[in-house]
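Could you join me in thinking about how sequence relates to backbone shape in a protein? We need material for that, and I hope you will provide a protein of your own picking. Once you have written the record down, we can walk along the chain together:

…
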Amino acid sequence: MGSTRRKEVIQTLEKEMTPSFASFIAHFGYSNRVCAADVARGLAARLEFPRRVPLVERFESSRNILRCFMKSHQDYGPLVKSFDMYKIGLECVWSLVAAAVNQQEVLPTKPWIQDILSSCSQHFYNVHSHQYGGVVIELQSHW
């Protein structure tokens, strides 16, 4: 991949990494605001991690987080922690994609340019299997 095309891909990725979402916006605490996508992402991160905890317990935990969020004046600590977990996951995915583009690990295959990266989260695989300007980036779960 040429340097011009690589710059185009990076610009497209940077633009697509910060989309705005049309959904509800809720205030919790004194000055914190979140939208529905933020809550869904935080709950998805909680469902994914930690893997050592059984899935049923992770589900119950995420359900309790949602219940606390829906009822006002509850403890928002677990929700904020799940936001932080999701942020870390997105930063890791972004660094993997940027490193692959910078190291020219993107392979031309038919009409698409494809790169296969590794991630430990099936959710991040689903979120980031998008087409970016003729570039398909797939994240495979192997952990």
User: Anything to note?
Assistant: The mean pLDDT is 71. DSSP finds five helices and six strands in the chain. The CA atoms of residues 51 and 101 lie 29 Å apart.
